[in-house]
Specification:
419 residues, mainly beta, 16-stranded antiparallel β-sheet, 5-stranded antiparallel β-sheet, 3 helices, 21 strands, 5% helix, flat
């Protein structure tokens, strides 16, 4: 977008995430289970990207007595897969501290494994949810002294509500490590169906994790369309280092092609904290909205970030964004940019930065954007056979479900898509 800026003297900082080291001009040190390997090299504490290949070089010049340096970041994903991640360090720890049940026992073997970062929302087939056992209550001890339990049952409520559930878990002989897992399926006479899983664990080193997953089928109360919603929450924390992370993923689909996806992530890696939010919305008729906002900061008070947004329909739309950096003494650098796509091959590009650079031009350029989600209604229906197969309680003749829609208008943050 702009002419290359002059380079400065670089102070090297290498950050390896997932392979287990952070080098800040000192010896390497191990880190706790941060999946998704990236190779990052920057002259100052720099923002860690989201797995896409990014190359950029920017100058931030302030009062030379305060701060003067160049900023270069090169982020390379280890795979072209959008959620690629190497085997987590959590796994080896769990295998060490979570004893499996002896083959000769009838106790459950732990299916739990610590979650990996940036793996999105798994399909129901990957969870292995088995609700075939009912009214089970058993426990036992393995040969190594570790214990286990398994329970299952059914809860009944009003309006045809039924919840079938299975709980299982275990712990080492000294109680320093444990695992828990719960599966459930819910239904009622309104057509609501739900599958869910919750897993958690802790090892002898104090490392802990929690992961939940839900898949819901229901009829939208405003459009009367069938909707499927999926969500996942994942978090992990080191017991010995100042390292941890959290992710909240969500996906919503309806039978006319309306789709909404998003994620909210944050974490801590030694002296740095980071956050990331992104979202996608497709109205099923060609209109698309996408956005991303990422930012991070160090313990010294240095902050940096990057955000962008794009809106398109029928080849006409816009893109805009900002990259910024703030020093501990409140000096701030930023570069803003924008694009207007007219649908006729002409694109207006403009931008400026706090260092005085600017550009404003019209170019011949073919506009490209994704008008349809790569994973939509047909895909999620095909992957939700167990959700659809949930059998509700039999509804007596003449009994109708209580359809309480609340207020006459939907709340602002839950407005139905425009048709």
């Amino acid at each position: 977008m702009a002419a290359p800026l002059s380079s400065g003297k670089l102070k090297s900082v290498n950050v390896g995430i997932g392979m287990g080291f952070v080098e800040l001009g000192r010896k390497k040190r191990s880190v706790f289970g941060i999946g998704g390997y990236w190779g990052v090299k920057c002259c100052s504490l720099g923002f860690i990207g989201s797995g896409k290949c990014i190359e950029k070089c920017e100058n931030w010049k302030f009062d030379t007595k305060k701060i003067s340096h160049s900023y270069c970041v090169k982020v390379q994903a280890s795979s072209t897969m959008p959620f690629a991640s190497p085997k987590s360090q959590f796994v080896s720890k769990q295998e060490q501290f979570f004893p499996r049940c002896a083959p000769r026992t009838s106790g459950p073997q732990s299916h739990d494994s610590p979650p990996k970062r940036d793996t999105g929302i798994a399909n129901e087939k990957e969870w292995g949810i088995d609700m075939s056992n009912e009214n089970v209550n058993e426990s036992g001890t393995n040969e190594d002294g570790s214990t286990w339990y398994r329970k299952s049952g059914e809860d009944i409520g009003e309006n045809g509500y039924r919840c079938r559930w299975t709980k299982m878990g275990g712990q080492s002989h000294d109680g320093t490590s444990e695992w828990k897992e719960m599966w459930w399926e819910k239904s009622d006479w309104t057509g609501y169906k739900e599958l869910g899983v919750e897993k958690s664990g802790r090892n002898a080193e104090g490392d802990s994790w929690l992961e939940t997953w839900q898949e819901v089928l229901h009829q939208d109360e405003w459009s009367n369309l069938a909707r499927i919603e999926r969500s996942a929450q994942k978090q992990a924390k080191s017991g010995s280092e100042n390292v941890g992370w959290y992710e909240n993923w969500s996906e919503k689909y309806d039978a006319k092609g309306w789709t909404e996806k998003g994620a909210h992530k944050y974490g801590r890696l030694d002296e740095q904290s980071w956050w990331e939010k992104w979202g996608e919305q497709y109205d099923g008729r060609g209109s698309v909205l996408k956005w991303t906002d990422k930012w991070a900061e160090s313990e010294l008070g240095t902050k940096w970030g990057d955000k962008w947004e794009e809106k398109f329909f029928g080849g006409i739309g816009s893109r805009q964004g900002e990259t910024w950096h703030a020093s501990p003494n409140s000096e701030r650098w930023s570069r803003t940019w924008g694009e207007e796509h007219f649908g006729n091959g002409k694109v207006h590009k403009y931008g400026k930065s706090t260092t005085g650079e600017s550009w404003d031009m019209v170019m011949d350029e073919k506009t490209y954007y994704e008008a349809e989600p790569h994973y939509g209604w047909a895909d999620v229906v095909g992957d939700s056979s167990q959700l659809f197969s949930i059998q509700p309680r039999e509804q007596p003749p003449g009994v109708y479900p209580n359809m309480d829609f609340g207020s006459s208008m939907p709340p602002d943050d839950e407005s139905p898509p425009t048709r």
